[in-house]
Design goal:
Number of strands: 15
Mean pLDDT: 84
Largest sheet: 7 strands, antiparallel
CATH architecture of the largest domain: 3-Layer(bba) Sandwich
Number of domains: 2
CATH topology of the largest domain: Hepatocyte Growth Factor
Structural class: alpha+beta
Helix content: 10-25%
Distance between the termini: 51 Å
Order of helices and strands: HHEEEEHEEEEEHEHEEEEE
Strand content: 25-35%
Radius of gyration: 21 Å
Shape: elongated
Strand order of the largest sheet: 1-2-3-7-5-6-4
């Protein structure tokens, strides 16, 4: 079995060499989506790229996964060769990590699962890449210039926040702008769902706070404050945010900011 695995790895390396020297691969640009003009700057924890061979993938700096969880490890590869290794593995490579080093000290790791089920670890010399298809859900760009993924399953409020946080650079949806609010409450679910958790909770009789600690300032009249209990959790519904029980399972939209706009 060990000999067979070694043979398969050598075949992969041969394919990589052929790809890197072929005209087709050299003409395969990685198009990183850039910030729209006129947008205020914000924090960007993840970037989004679309490769003609690899498809869409996201990049998170300073993260990797352990060698024990890797399906393939190669030394002495640069970032481009590491990406090519993942391409040759096809569906067996959901994500990969490149760790910078001098010469043979550089390291390429691949893994057959996405960030939701991967124990990611911090490493300043590492960069973690994951295919958008490795996340259980559907990605979409919105008019507010933010990236969203509707998760495949429903979750309780706390579980929804934790699930989004497992994906680098993502959070449960917060609406600081009119564009985000309009997109969120009118979003057409891929799974025919109506209720989505908002990262919002009631903090007083007439006050509500977003998950980043800021108070609700946009569309306060569209937040239902009729419930008496403090710290009721809210879900979005067309036209209004309404309160709900945090233990109920609701649909989830995770939000990311690859363009680095104010969010």
């Amino acid at each position: 079995m060990e000999g067979k695995q070694k043979f398969q790895q050598e075949i992969i390396l041969l394919v990589v060499v052929v790809m890197l020297t072929s005209e087709a691969f050299l003409l395969s640009p990685v198009a990183e989506i850039v910030q729209p003009s006129g947008q205020p700057l914000g924090q960007r924890n993840v970037s989004f790229s679309n490769d003609t061979l690899m498809g869409a993938f996201l990049t998170a700096p300073n993260l990797t996964f352990s060698r024990d969880s890797a399906t393939l490890i190669r030394f002495g590869f640069d970032n481009c060769k590491c990406r090519a290794v993942c391409f040759t593995l096809g569906s067996e490579c959901k994500a990969w990590s490149f760790i910078e080093g001098e010469g043979e000290a550089s390291e390429c790791r691949t893994i057959n699962r996405g960030p939701e089920t991967t124990n990611l670890i911090n490493m300043t010399s590492a960069t973690y890449f994951f295919r958008d298809s490795s996340v259980g859900g559907f990605y979409t760009w919105a008019p507010d210039h933010l990236l969203y993924v509707e998760l495949e399953y429903v979750y309780r409020f706390q579980d929804a926040k934790e699930r989004c946080a497992k994906i680098p650079g993502h959070r449960l949806t917060i609406a600081h702008s009119n564009d985000t609010y309009d997109f969120f409450i009118h979003y057409k679910s891929r799974y025919d769902r109506t209720y989505f958790w908002a990262n919002l909770k009631k903090t007083g009789s007439r006050e509500a706070q977003w998950g980043d600690g800021t108070n609700v300032t946009h569309q306060p009249n569209f937040v239902d404050m009729s419930g008496g209990d403090v710290e009721q959790y809210f879900v979005g519904i067309t036209g209004q945010y309404i309160y709900d029980i945090p233990d109920d399972g609701r649909a989830v939209l995770c939000q990311a900011n690859p363009l680095g706009i104010e969010w």
